[in-house]
């Protein structure tokens, strides 16, 4: 990790230690994904917290999230929750079982379509990548995301937000 990424990780850890949600809003290309995965790895390795965590991201980035988790923190048991109805049924029944995974990586569309399944869990972290997508508090995505029971929320964006 670069020094500024380590500083970002330490900031995320301090947020966690103080029970505070956060927004990681570094510019594009500065390693927000790595910092976030490192936070989950820190919780696993140094705090014994294995989740469950949910990462919600654009469908086009799910493969990258899975690759980065495998590359930088292979100890985390990650599941990609996406696919046809039959593929999702298999994931729901065989993989998305408490104690069998640490992180579920899924898309904005899936958190809406599969909210009944995903609401069964009490999440440690809900992480929303490209979080500017929930800027409109009246959108279906924003309303759905507020339904999830979680201890912590981390929003990730490289797009400036006006509040």
TrEMBL record:
It comes from the Eukaryota. PROSITE patterns: HELICASE_ATP_BIND_1. Residues 13-163 form the Helicase ATP-binding domain. InterPro entries: Helicase_ATP-bd, P-loop_NTPase, SNF2-like_sf, SNF2_N. One of its GO terms (molecular function) is ATP binding. PANTHER family: SNF2/RAD54 HELICASE FAMILY. This is Chromatin-remodeling complex ATPase chain-like protein. It comes from Trifolium pratense (Red clover).
């Amino acid at each position: 990790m670069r020094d500024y990424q380590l500083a970002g990780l330490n900031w995320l850890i301090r947020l966690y230690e103080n029970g505070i949600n956060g927004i990681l809003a570094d510019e594009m290309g500065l390693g927000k994904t790595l910092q976030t995965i490192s936070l989950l790895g820190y919780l696993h390795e140094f705090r014994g917290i294995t989740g469950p965590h949910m990462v919600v991201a654009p469908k086009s980035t799910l493969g990258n999230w899975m690759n980065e988790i495998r590359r930088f923190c292979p100890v985390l048991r990650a599941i990609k929750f996406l696919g046809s109805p039959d593929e999702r049924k298999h994931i729901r029944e065989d993989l998305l079982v408490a104690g069998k995974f640490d992180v579920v990586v899924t898309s904005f569309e899936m958190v809406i379509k599969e909210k009944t399944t995903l609401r069964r869990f009490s999440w440690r972290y809900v992480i929303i990548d490209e979080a500017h997508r929930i800027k409109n508090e009246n959108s279906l995505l924003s309303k759905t995301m507020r339904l999830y029971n979680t201890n912590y929320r981390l929003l990730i964006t490289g797009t400036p937000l006006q509040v």
